[in-house]
Specification:
Largest sheet: none
GO molecular function: cytochrome-c oxidase activity
Number of domains: 1
CATH superfamily: Cytochrome c oxidase, subunit III, four-helix bundle
Order of helices and strands: HHHHHH
Mean pLDDT: 88
Organism: Paenibacillus apii
Keywords: Cell membrane, Membrane, Transmembrane, Transmembrane helix
Radius of gyration: 20 Å
CATH architecture: Up-down Bundle
Shape: elongated
Distance between the termini: 64 Å
CATH class: Mainly Alpha
Helix content: over 70%
Membrane topology: Multi-pass membrane protein
Protein name: Cytochrome (Ubi)quinol oxidase subunit III
Number of helices: 6
């Protein structure tokens, strides 16, 4: 008998829940292709930033501007959120939807903490350092790269929040499980991108 798309999952989920249906497999494959395109796009932004980071137009340099304790705190929140998303997937594998929702909620809260610190960082640069989007080629490249990543974080927070609501309404099914899995892939991707941003933009900026 063919499993209904709305049928709850009983007796635990397979280790790769995207294999529950052909639709789930297609979603995961399509999302891998999407992430490949996103990686190329971020690679272009990184290359642009590296080419323009010395073009300060007599404005503040990266070494003068960046405050690593604040950025380190934001990094901590985002990396921990990646761990909590792993715990959410583990709860899904054990077919524990309540625990799954709780870990997803923690992931959202940590993502909001990261986003709040990033918004605060940008506001401090603009208000106290006169470092705006059009201050220099360096500032334009910085805000484009870091802001683009922040927009991805905001989208991920919204996506996971909607999935929490869907889990509360529909439960854990062969339809909702692949969505959770794909959202976790996305969240890990933006975490990995941030590690590169922290290294290339902030650490190298302070060293340089």
């Amino acid at each position: 008998m063919t499993t209904s798309h709305a049928e709850p999952v009983h007796g635990g989920l397979p280790h790769e829940p995207e294999k529950a249906t052909a639709e789930g497999r297609n979603k995961v494959l399509a999302f891998w292709l999407f992430l490949g395109g996103e990686a190329v796009l971020f690679g272009t932004l990184f290359a642009t930033f590296l080419a323009l980071r010395g073009q300060t137009n007599e404005g503040p340099t990266a070494n003068e501007l960046f405050h690593l304790p604040l950025v380190a705190a934001a990094t901590f929140f985002l990396l921990i959120s990646s761990l909590t998303s792993v715990f959410a997937i583990q709860a899904m594998h054990r077919n524990r939807p309540a625990l799954l929702r709780n870990w997803l909620l923690v992931t959202v809260v940590l993502g909001l903490c990261f986003l709040g610190l990033e918004i605060y960082e940008f506001s401090e640069y603009v208000r106290h350092e006169q470092f705006g989007m059009t201050t220099s080629a360096f500032s334009s490249a910085f805000y484009t790269l870091v802001g683009f990543h922040g927009a991805h974080v905001a989208f991920g927070i919204l996506w996971i929040s909607l999935l929490i609501g869907q889990l509360a309404y529909k439960g854990l099914t062969v339809v909702t499980a692949p969505k959770i899995y794909v959202s976790a892939m996305y969240w890990h991707f933006i975490d990995v991108v941030w590690v590169f941003i922290f290294t290339v933009v902030y650490l190298l900026g302070k060293v340089g």
